[in-house]
Amino acid sequence: MLRLPPLSYRQPATLDEALAILAGEGPAARIVAGGTDLLPNMKRRHQHASTLVSLMGIPSLAGVVDGNGGGLRIGGTTTLSTVADHAAVRARYPALARAVESISSPPLRNMGTIGGNLCLDTRCTYYNQTEEWRRSIDYCMKEAGTICWVATSSPRCWAHSASDAAPMLCALGATLRLASRDGERELPIAALYRDDGIDYLTKRPDDVLVEVHVPAEADAAHCRTSFWKLRRRGSIDFAVLSVAAAVWVGPAGLVERAALWLGAVGSAPREAAAAAASLVGSPLDPGTISHAAELAKKAATPMDNTDFQTQWRKAVVGRYVEAALGDCAGLPVERLPRH
């Protein structure tokens, strides 16, 4: 049985108390919410901390607030089940509900939080193993080593981003609010990520993700959205590809604006900007969608760091983009063939 190392566990009752603990403990402390990613990683000695600071006892960080036409605010410790099942999320942002309810399994969605999923550690076949396995082949650069086993001549780590909420929230143009003892700041969800498998977040260790704001202009009254996810099994497994699409169509039936983001094909959510731009000014029809799907493949750089062959994962990007945009267009989408 894998066990946690000895540690101190703190349960602050207010945000100010949590920020004070984090500032006082410094790098030795880590934030924990649902713990569905961090605690298994600590058991396998991927991640380390001498103090865990739980955010789950702070009421102000949890819950969904519907702005009644003014967007949606989701507290950082709101559980994934709460987000996926919330009436306002399902009615106004159906693709976000679909993305969140695709995460893992019901028991883990009951524990995991939206903030935790956005800050999910990057993953790799050579990293997400037991301590003994990693030691036997020599550690990779993400864990005390000097080499990336995915690309042995590379100076950087290629572990991939596996968050399902992140690509969808990026496509919706969501922002988040961070707090520390130095004050609060707001930034686009996309700015939370750095394209580096090790140093993958721009968030500081003492920053608390307070809330996510999803703008009104991206709700179902203004925008068509879709989310598609590829994984080995239909549940539980992490994504090996996800596609998040948001399309704004004008009265004349022409696309006025579009956003297309890919997950699990890089160390950060990857924007398929050229593909999205190709849709603007055109009707959302099969020809336009097919062209955008071809362009989207250029934004994906799948590596040998997760399930399925890399060449097949690269090719299937186009199929999943077609499926997601077909959803947005209201076109019938056939079931994609199994690998």
Structure description:
The chain is an alpha+beta fold and 339 residues long. Among the domains are: 119 residues, Uridine Diphospho-n-acetylenolpyruvylglucosamine Reductase, domain 3, CATH 3.30.465.10; 105 residues, 2-Layer Sandwich (Enolase-like, domain 1). Helix content is 30%, strand content 19%. The chain has a 5-stranded antiparallel sheet. It has a 4-stranded antiparallel sheet with strand order 9-10-11-12, sandwiched between helices. The longest helix has 20 residues. The protein is globular and about 60 Å long. It starts with 7 loop residues before the first strand and ends in a 10-residue tail after the last helix. The mean pLDDT is 94.
Mean pLDDT: 94
Provide the structure class.
alpha+beta
The CATH topology name of the domain at 60-119 and 160-218 reads Uridine Diphospho-n-acetylenolpyruvylglucosamine Reductase, domain 3
The number of helical runs is 12
CATH class category name of the domain at 60-119 and 160-218: Alpha Beta
Q: In percent, how helical is the residue content?
A: 25-40%
User: Which percent band covers the strand fraction?
Assistant: 15-25%
Total beta strand runs: 12
Low-confidence stretches: none
The backbone outline, from C-alpha atoms, is globular
Q: At CATH's second level, what is the architecture of the domain at 60-119 and 160-218?
A: 2-Layer Sandwich
N- to C-terminal distance: 34 Å
Overall radius of gyration: 20 Å
What is the string of helix and strand elements?
EHEHEEEHHHHHHHEEEEEEEHHH
Largest sheet, described in full? Answer: 5 strands, antiparallel
Order of strands in the sheet with the most strands? 4-5-8-6-7
